[in-house]
Amino acid sequence: MEKEILIFIPTYNERENVEKICKEIDLLGINCHVLFVDDNSPDGTGAVLEGLTKKYKNIIVQHRAGKEGIGSAHICGITYAYEHGYDLLVTMDSDFTHNPVDIPKLLAAVKNNEVVVGSRYMEKNSLPGWSVFRLVITYFGHFLTRYLLGIKQDASGAFRAYNLRRVALAVFAQINSKSYSFFFESLFLLKMNGYSLGEIPITLSARTYGHSKLNFKEAMRSGLFLIKLALQKIVNPARFRIGKVANSGKFSFLENEEWNSYWQRKKNASSFFYGIAASVYRRLFIKPHLQRHIKMNFNAGSKLLHAGCGSGQVDVSLHENYAITAVDLSSEAIELYSKNNPNVNRIEQADILNLELERHSFDGIYNLGVFEHFSHYEIKNILGQFRSLLKPGGKIVIFWPHRYAWSVFVLKIAHYILNHIFKKNIRLHPAEPSLLGGKRSAQSILSEASFELVNYTFNAKDLFVQAVVVARPQDV
Q1: Phi then psi dihedrals of residue 152, to 5 deg
Q2: Which end of the chain is more exposed for a tag (fewer CB within 10 A), N or C?
Q3: Helix H segments across 193-343?
Q4: Burial class of 469 by CB neighbour count within 10 A (0 to 12, 13 to 18, 19+)
Q5: Is the pLDDT of residue 210 over 70?
Q6: The dihedral formed by the CA atoms of 98, 102, 105 and 111, expressed in degrees to the nearest 10
Q7: pLDDT score for 252
Q8: E runs forming strands in 47-183
Q9: Which domains does the chain have, with CATH numbers?
């Protein structure tokens, strides 16, 4: 049998249903394999499935140690389909919530789309026999996924077909949810990466065999996760896209886990909301401020190095006019940068203290909020490297947080409240031992590294947070 179509069905306590659904699928006459993934069902579903493999030669059974979540099971099935070279994948429930007779319609539709879902919302009376409470919950969930995530299709259903020849496995690697929120998260990620989503109308009668396993606690957890995705979509939609791979082969470095943790923003609610606030500030104030200074100091077509590029939200509009090489120590930051800046000239994962790039190859070097995290000695080292990388006539543009910036005091107060009052032991931002003291301080540090100050500004255009230091090597 050619490995073209795989039908995936997760099971947990479905002993009474699996033989019936195998028979229904067999009657369709589809040339396919059927993969069951059973989570060690207490009712003996796994043993029944093993018996069915003797009757139906196209059945494959995988057993897991325990109940690991419906989303986790679907990832297992999707991964199996890719690893074994299937072209099309159909996913469905085993309790006849989804009617096997709709599978051919799903397969026909997916040949013209990347993904097709069976929709409960395309036709009237598609949910016969459902209670009022269940209808309200279902339609409210559809309202949220439609208007918060922008998904017009039925985002919470498991009856789907994926065209694996057109969809990259890397999309599914980004999924975090192992439970019911897998369904809307996976469809959201597919949409954010530009894949076409189709749908066919289906009818879901009130559950005949078994009962819904989605309880109130899980529904609340999914709702909160949906809101989190919606906030991240507003602040930084590129976070959900597949990025290009950074070149790191020629560099020797030790990744800084503190910075990886900072860019991940997954540890706690405080860090998450701090990340949102920082992202909004970058987009509304830092981004236009940077564009002004880059345009003032460098001609169109210049080769620039962003040394300590972070997520790159501020660089998005620069690539049309400049050939930018972006480097950062954190693999998390590099991944975010590549998603935010798909047209970047070059990305390198590298240590700013040990840049092994071609000498005298850049017209300019810039960074934002980087120097304050290094010691005085390390800053001199970095500036020395910048000198060797600049072409004759080249300049550096450094956005350097000021010692008396209001943001510094806000951050100190936030850390005091979190760690001394609430005893949380949370650090929202890596340490800043070298905040800039002012213009004279900048001149002194630059002079020690054989740079001369060209321009210094500290004004309201970024709400008095970072001084902008423009300098060039003294011998130029």
Answers
A1: -80, -25
A2: N
A3: 216-235, 257-264, 269-281, 287-297, 331-340
A4: buried
A5: no
A6: 40
A7: 38
A8: 59-63, 88-91, 115-119, 160-163
A9: 5-235 (3.90.550.10), 244-473 (3.40.50.150)
The b/e string for 424-447 (b: 16+ C-beta within 10 A; e otherwise) is eebbbbeeeebbbeeeebbbebbe
Mean pLDDT along residues 136-142: 88
Q: Which helix (H) or strand (E) holds 18?
A: helix 18-27
Q: What is the DSSP letter of 309?
A: -
Rounded Cα–Cα distance for residues 316 and 310 (Å): 12
Dig out the tokens for 325 from the structure. 């090489």
Averaged pLDDT for residues 402-407:
92
Sign of CA dihedral 105, 111, 116, 121: negative
Instruction: Say what the pLDDT of residue 301 is.
Output: 97
Residue position matching structure tokens 């070279």:
85
How is residue 353 written in tokens?
């203290």
Give all strands of the β-sheet with 88-91 in edge-to-edge order. Answer: 59-63, 33-38, 5-11, 88-91, 160-163, 115-119, 197-201
Nearest to 457, CA basis, from 474, 442, 473? 442
CA angle at 21 for the pair 15 and 22, rounded to the nearest 5°? 95
- Report the pLDDT averaged over residues 429-455: 95
Write out the H or E segment, with its range, that includes residue 426. none
Q: Which helix (H) or strand (E) holds 444?
A: helix 439-448
Q: What is the DSSP string of 164-213?
A: TTTS-HHHHHT----STTHHHHHHHHHHHTT--EEEEE---PSP-SS---
For residue 180 the two structure tokens come to 């019911």
Q: How many CB atoms lie within 10 A of CB 15?
A: 16
Alpha-carbon distance 282 to 312, whole Å? 10
Average pLDDT, the chain: 90
| Single-letter amino acid code for the residue at 474 | Q
Confidence class of residue 282 from pLDDT cuts 50, 70 and 90? confident
Q: What is the token pair recorded at 401?
A: 């947080």
Q: Which residue in the block uniquely carries the two structure tokens 């009474």?
A: 16
Distance CA 298, CA 192 (A): 34
